């Protein structure tokens, strides 16, 4: 964490905005990285309601913030406030990072896909040619689905509480990546049983199982079986009910901390204009697990 005595009148700010944000560990892990990098920058979290988003972005830019990390529920609205949209944000139609640049204005990025794919690569999972069941078609689910298709996944089952939203995402993927077969499903035990019977990977891209409702799981435990890999983007708790049940049934599992850390890595890279050393990435990972009081699910 950045020491208060290290802050001064020239300290620059990167802010996390969303509603809510009080639960987020981004300020904890990013400030540990900023202190270790010895830069005069601090990360803060600011709760911003939907009706205040436009003013918040304009105000942060006027006050000289380096950028804004954007979380629920603002990702889709944020991309519409940008002057320049990176291909990553063009692909997803949303942004989780806005960077302020003197010559380019407000630049929008989507780093969720990068973070998820890097997390999977760390455990040796390559989506190419694989069948994947994705639970959730919201902001994170949309970003992951599009990047998985871009990474040449063979087939995607997209299960959502409202099938219409899953169907809308299916249309978008079919248009951009017709070589990936996409099947939209309503979220039911029967549909999950069918999809998981063909799948190599299950991703929970919803908030089901997040603290304080950590006893919940989006998938009945009896549907989990090896060699299925289970990836839960929830990071608090590290060991969600889904992951505990999957590990108990012999599946390989991946928690959401690496994805959180890699989005922070990209935020630092774009806001500071530097490559983030691997030692700093490891520091953020260790800081996050320590703050949560648990070790990595791969340990």
Describe this structure in words.
This protein has 299 residues and is of the alpha/beta class. It folds into two domains: 4-110 and 258-292, Rossmann fold; 113-255, NAD(P)-binding Rossmann-like Domain (Rossmann fold), CATH 3.40.50.720. It has eleven helices and twelve strands. The chain has helices spanning 26-36, 53-62, 75-79, 87-92, 112-122, 139-150, 163-176, 189-196, 241-248, 257-272, 278-292; strands spanning 12-18, 41-47, 67-70, 84-85, 97-101, 105-109, 131-135, 155-160, 181-186, 201-204, 229-232, 252-254. The strands form two sheets. It has a six-stranded mixed sheet, sandwiched between helices. A six-stranded parallel sheet has the order 9-8-7-10-11-12, with helices on both faces. Strand 1 (12-18), helix 1 (26-36) and strand 2 form a beta-alpha-beta unit. Helix 5 (112-122) crosses helix 6 (139-150) and helix 10 packs across helix 11. The longest helix has 16 residues, at 257-272. The chain starts with 11 loop residues before the first strand and ends in a 7-residue tail after the last helix. The model has no long low-confidence stretch (mean pLDDT 94).
Order of helices and strands: EHEHEHEHEEHEHEHEHEEHEHH
Q: What's the CATH topology name of the largest domain?
A: Rossmann fold
Q: Provide the gyration radius in Å.
A: 19 Å
Count every helix, treating DSSP H or I runs of 4 or more residues as helices. Answer: 11
- General form: globular
Distance between the termini: 25 Å
Largest β sheet strand count, sense and barrel closure = 6 strands, mixed
Count of all domains = 2
Broad structural category: alpha/beta
CATH C-level class of the largest domain is Alpha Beta
Overall mean pLDDT? 94
- Approximately what portion of the residues adopt beta-strand conformation? 15-25%
CATH superfamily grouping of the largest domain: NAD(P)-binding Rossmann-like Domain
**Order of strands across the widest beta sheet?**
2-1-3-5-6-4
How many β-strands, per DSSP? 12
Question: What percent of the residues sit in helical stretches (DSSP H or I)?
Answer: 25-40%
Low-confidence stretches: none
Architecture (CATH level 2) name of the largest domain: 3-Layer(aba) Sandwich
């Amino acid at each position: 964490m950045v020491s208060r005595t290290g802050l001064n009148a020239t300290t620059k700010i990167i802010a996390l905005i969303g509603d809510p944000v009080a639960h987020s560990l981004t300020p904890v892990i990013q400030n540990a990285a900023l202190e270790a990098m010895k830069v005069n920058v601090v990360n803060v979290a600011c709760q911003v309601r939907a009706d205040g988003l436009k003013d918040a972005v304009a105000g942060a830019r006027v006050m000289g913030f380096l950028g804004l990390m954007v979380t629920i529920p603002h990702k889709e609205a944020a991309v519409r406030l940008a002057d320049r949209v990176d291909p990553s944000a063009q692909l997803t139609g949303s942004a989780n990072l806005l960077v302020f640049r003197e010559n380019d204005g407000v630049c929008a990025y989507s780093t969720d896909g990068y973070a998820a794919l890097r997390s999977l690569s760390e455990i040796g999972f390559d989506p190419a040619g694989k069948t994947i069941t994705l639970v959730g078609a919201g902001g994170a689910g949309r970003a992951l689905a599009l990047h998985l298709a871009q990474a040449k996944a063979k087939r995607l089952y997209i299960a959502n509480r409202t099938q219409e939203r899953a169907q809308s995402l299916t249309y978008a993927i079919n248009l951009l990546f017709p070589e990936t077969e996409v099947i939209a499903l309503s979220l039911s035990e029967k549909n999950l049983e069918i999809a998981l019977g063909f799948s190599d990977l299950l991703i929970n891209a919803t908030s089901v199982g997040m603290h304080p409702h950590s006893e919940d799981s989006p998938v009945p435990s009896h549907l989990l079986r090896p060699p299925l890999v289970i990836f839960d983007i929830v990071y608090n708790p590290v060991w969600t009910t889904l992951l505990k049940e999957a590990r108990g049934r012999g599946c390989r599992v991946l928690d959401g901390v690496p994805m959180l850390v890699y989005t922070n890595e990209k935020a630092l890279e774009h806001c500071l204009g530097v490559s983030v050393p691997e030692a700093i990435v490891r520091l953020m990972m260790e800081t996050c697990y320590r703050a949560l009081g648990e070790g990595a699910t791969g340990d």
